[in-house]
Each structure stands twice: as C-alpha cells, then as structure tokens.
Amino acid sequence: MSLILGIESSCDETAVAVVRDGFEVLSSEVASQIAKHAVHGGVVPELAAREHLKALTPVTEAALRTAGAAMSDIDAVAVTQGPGLMPALLVGINYAKGLAAAHRLPLIGVNHFIAHIYGAFLDDGASALTDAATYPLLALVVSGGHTSLLLINRDGTARCLGSTIDDAAGEALDKGAKLLGLGYPGGPVMQRTAEGGNPERFDFPRPLTGAAGKALAPENRYNFSFSGIKTALLYHVRRHAGPDGGLPPELLRDTVASYQYAVVDVLVRKTLAAVREYHPGTVVVAGGVACNSELRRIMAERLPGTLRLRIAPPRYCTDNAAMVGGLGWHSFRRGDFAAADLDGFARLPAISRVPFLSPEAD
Ligand code: KG4
Ligand code: ZN
After folding, report:
1. Opening angle at CA 37, ends 292 and 48, nearest 5
2. Cβ contacts of 61 within 8 Å, gap of 6 or more
3. For residue 114, which ligand has an atom nearest its CA?
4. Cα of 145 to ligand 1 centre, how many Å?
5. What pLDDT is attached to residue 358?
C-alpha cells in the first residue's frame, strides 16, 4: 500500500490530495482563487503565484487531516510540472521539493494534461484501465488551456490526432461570457444562462468541421478552431444589442444556448469522426469543460451505444490534485522519480506515451 501526496498549482486552483495506490482518493482539497481573478476578468499569473504561496500550507494540512494521514505516512510527493502558468507552477513545484526533501521522500513530476485524462479513472476506474477492451482509448481533453484528441493504445503509446489552432474550448466560453458581461469563469455561468434557451435559434459557425460547404483540409480533420465563433458572437451582439449595449434577457438566453451548442457540437462532431476512423473501445472526456451538462448529454446521445463513455464526476474534471496523486503513483511504482532540479514547463510537449500504461509495470 502506498500513499501519494499530490500537489496542483498550474492555474488558479491550489489543490492537494492524498491518493492510495493510484485510484482511491482519501482526500482532495481545492482552494479556488476564482474570486480574486474575477475582478480582472481572467487569471493574472503573478497574483495566482502569490495566492498559491498563501494557500499551499493550509490546503496541505487539510488534505492530510481529511485523509487521516501524517507526512510520515506518505510515500512520495507528486507535483504538476506543466503545462500551465509558469509563476503558478513554480510555487507548487518548490513547495513539493521542500516537502520531499524535509521528509526524505521521492519527488514525482506529473503532466497536467495527462492527469486530466487519468482523472476519469479515479475511484472506480482501475479495472477499466487494465481491460484490453478499453483500447484504443480516445481522449478528448477540453479545458481552459487545451482542446485535443489523443489516441492511447494498450501498450501506453499515444498519438495526438489534433488540437486547437487558436482558442481552447473553455477559453471560447470564458471569452464569450466576458463579451456578454456574464463574468468569469464563463463555462459554468454560460451553462446556467443557457438553461431553457433555444440552442438552434442562432446559427453560430462550426469551424473546421466541413459544415457550411467549406472544404476541410485533411490536416485539420481533428484540429479545432474556436476564435471564429467568438468573433461571430461579437457581431451578433452588435446587431442585437439594446440601447445599453446589452442583449434583452430572452435574447441573451437563446444567444448563450446557441453559442454553447456551437462549441459542444464541434467537440462532439470531431470526436465522432475519430470514433469512426479509429474504433476506440472507450471515449474519455476530460478537463473543466467536461463538467458541461450539454456536452455530457449530447456526447452520450450521439456516440454509438456499444462504445464506453467515461466522463469523470465534475470534481475530477476541473483542476484538482487527486488526478496528480493518482497518476503520480504509476511513476512511483516504476521508480520513475524526478531529480532535485525538477523544473516546470509552460507548454504541452509532444506526447508519445502515457505513464499510466507501461509494459514494465503490468
Ligand atoms: O481543467 P480546468 O479547471 O483548468 C484548465 O486546466 O484550464 O478548466 C477550466 C475551464 C474554464 O474555461 C471553465 O470555463 C470551464 O473549464 N468550465 C466549464 C464548466 N465548468 C468549468 N465549461 C463549460 N461548462 C461548465 N459547467
Ligand atoms: Zn486543468
């Protein structure tokens, strides 16, 4: 039995978790900085770093307390290495290094993007992960920073089929909400505003889907583009705004419903195209946007019934440290530890393998 302490500080959530043997989440504490950043309309990296510094010790203490564990029970410290905001990442990494050194524990660097996918297997996913019928596994990662389709084979090799060429899906929702004066973060507020609205009233573009008679270049088959939807929203608002510059309530609701549907429709269409070409055993939808009730509903509705769809509960979709502690355990049991000079990385590196499936460990 091994206990891993996971630490996450890549964006505006300070999170610490204790995870037993890769799957059993004993605690998952998240201190959100949303209120601090909301006044700026988005995340300010230096502010995030300062807030992480303040929150890390109390959040770590809370995670240990909830898990009923002491630092002397912990077997390794796993920390998000990237991608993310560098000032924010460095605070978590240095805190993790300090803890690991003080308690003579191994340190493990975790890729945040892969951790999001792993989040779908926490709590009840151990058997799915080892089941050959799960593969190839198609993962759609949709967050504030990423929109990518990744194909993962049983032997752990992986290939990115496509990514966004401009904004991420979450970013499109955040920017759309900002434009409409709905506040930050945009995803949850858009979902609430859209409730009961008509998603087909306004026809926002579906970029890179071959819709509207536009030819789709083969290299863009699995790429995404969301900046055009945002621009269309800007023109839509200009056309329909009242004298105060805003949209009347009933128009606002249908606008948000249609905008949200355009984003969701693109995500589902691209995933379906990949399903038809690669015949995965399971589709995983991960990242903050996977909380979206319309995305969850429409994805389940349109995917073939024979296919397994795994979407984590919302607490493991948005940023959390359980996914970090869980994924870190796989490196721990392989003895794949980080050096004392572990550094952060801001951008997502090319992914050719995932650490939760490795021939050596199985
Ligand atoms: O995974 P995450 O917490 O952080 C990143 O790694 O980026 O994702 C945050 C993103 C934000 O863009 C937020 O608006 C979006 O996830 N989000 C949602 C919902 N909840 C969070 N988007 C749509 N519907 C939601 N319910
Ligand atoms: Zn994230």
Report:
1. 105
2. none
3. 2
4. 9
5. 67
- The atom of ligand 1 lying closest to the CA of 144 is 7
362 pLDDT more than 70? no
Task: Determine contact, residues 50/312, Cβ cutoff 8 Å.
Answer: no
CA distance 216 to 219: 8
Which is the closest atom of ligand 1 to the Cα of 146?
A: 7
* Ligand 1, atom nearest to 318 Cα: 3
pTM of the model: 0.96
Tens digits of residue pLDDT in 284-324: 999 999 999 999 999 999 999 999 999 999 999 999 999 99
- Residue 141 CA to chain centroid, in angstroms? 6
Ligand 2 centroid–CA 49 distance in Å is 16
Strands 76-82 and 147-152 turn out to be unpaired
Mutate to test the pocket of ligand 1, among 291, 294, 347 (most ligand atoms within 8 A of CB): 291
Question: Which residue in this structure is represented by tokens 């794949």?
Answer: 336
Say how far apart CA 100 and CA 79 lie, in whole Å. Answer: 11
Please state whether the peptide bond connecting residue 249 to the residue before it is cis, i.e. omega within 30 degrees of 0.
Answer: no
Structure tokens at 205: 């573009």
The upper half-sphere exposure of residue 108, i.e. CA atoms within 13 Å in the direction of its Cβ, equals 29
Model confidence over 104-158: pLDDT tens digits? Answer: 999 999 999 999 999 999 999 999 999 999 999 999 999 999 999 999 999 999 9
Distances, alpha carbon 154 to alpha carbons 79, 264, 281, 316, in Å: 25, 28, 11, 23
- Residues touching ligand 1 (Cβ under 6 Å) are 11, 143-145, 170, 173-174, 185-188, 191, 287-289, 291-292, 318-319
